[in-house]
Amino acid sequence: MTEVSALSAVPSGARDAVLKFYFGPMDCGKSTLALQMNYNHGRQGRRGLVLTKHDRSGGPKVTSRIGLGLDAIEVVDSLDLVRLVTSHDRIDYLICDEACFYTVAQIEQLADLVDEHGVDVYAFGLASDFRSVMFPAAQRLFELADEVCRLQVEVLCWCGRPGQLNARVVGGAMARTGEQVVIGDTDASPVRYQVLCRRHHRSGRLGEGSFSDAVGDAVGSDQAV
Ligand SMILES: [Zn+2]
After folding, report:
1. What is the tens place of the pLDDT at every residue in 165-202?
2. Which of 93, 153, 159, 167 shows a CA-CA span of 20 to 30 A to 47?
3. CA–CA separation, 215 vs 163, rounded Å?
4. How far is residue 20's CA from residue 3's CA, in Å, rounded to a whole number?
5. Ligand 1 centre from 102 Cα, in Å?
6. What is the β-pairing status of strands 48-52 and 165-170?
7. How far apart are CA 18 and CA 104, in angstroms?
8. 143 is catalytic
């Protein structure tokens, strides 16, 4: 064991692993970026795992609105992410889609993987729920991440302002109360989701024609917000 003094040189070539959180409203391209990042790292010969929870496809997959898709590991509440990674031969990075729905304990496990196991973690998800209240897992990511990045890929409110917040619409009206996670936008569900600017999320105005086909596509297929 060598004694390391305060004056010791930083070991050359060493790079700390990182925990990064990319957040934004639904439709902002989070899953597309997650898949792109996985592709880029894989092409450099790095080995990773792709995780998700409640993907819009309904299966253990990461799917993006522009038609890309990849099989993924479904993060159930009981899954220990440290154990998952250490059960593999060598893992360099994790892509964690829909990380807002993970448990807070699982976010802590992601930080452990970064600090104790040198695994890069790229997490993607919503920041806040339909009430504009932060998801507990997203809050923990804001607190722990090395880097936090807001994604804004041209998701607009009906008024043309940047869409920032997710509204839950039940029976044509915006809901203010209810369970934090409700699957919507399926044939069986009366719940749908719509991205609004802060002003219209606060006022509850959904805009004219929010049930028309033109808007329907943009709000029609997200599920768990
Ligand atoms: Zn608006």
Report:
1. 999 999 889 999 999 988 787 777 789 999 999 999 99
2. 153
3. 13
4. 32
5. 29
6. unpaired
7. 18
8. no
Q: Could you tell me the CA-to-CA distances from 160 to 97, 170, 199, 218 in Å, in that order?
A: 27, 23, 12, 14
Separation of 192 CA from ligand 1 center, angstroms? 17
What's the longest Cα–Cα distance across the chain?
70
Strand partners, 57: none
Distance spanning both ends of the chain, measured CA to CA = 51
**And the tokens for 125?**
């998800």
Q: In what order do the strands lie in the sheet with 191-196?
A: 173-174, 165-170, 191-196
State in Å: Cα 185 to ligand 1 middle.
21
- Going from the Cα of 156 to the center of ligand 1, the distance in angstroms, rounded, reads 8
145 CA from centroid of ligand 1 (Å) = 30
Angstrom distance (rounded) from CA 149 to CA 22: 5
Pairing, β 173-174 against β 165-170: antiparallel
Share of the chain above pLDDT 90, in %: 60
Q: pTM for the whole thing?
A: 0.79
* DSSP assignment of 142-191: HHH-SEEEE--SS-B-TTSSBP-EEEEEETTEE--SS-S--B-SSTT-SE
Give the active site residue among 98, 108, 143, 147.
98
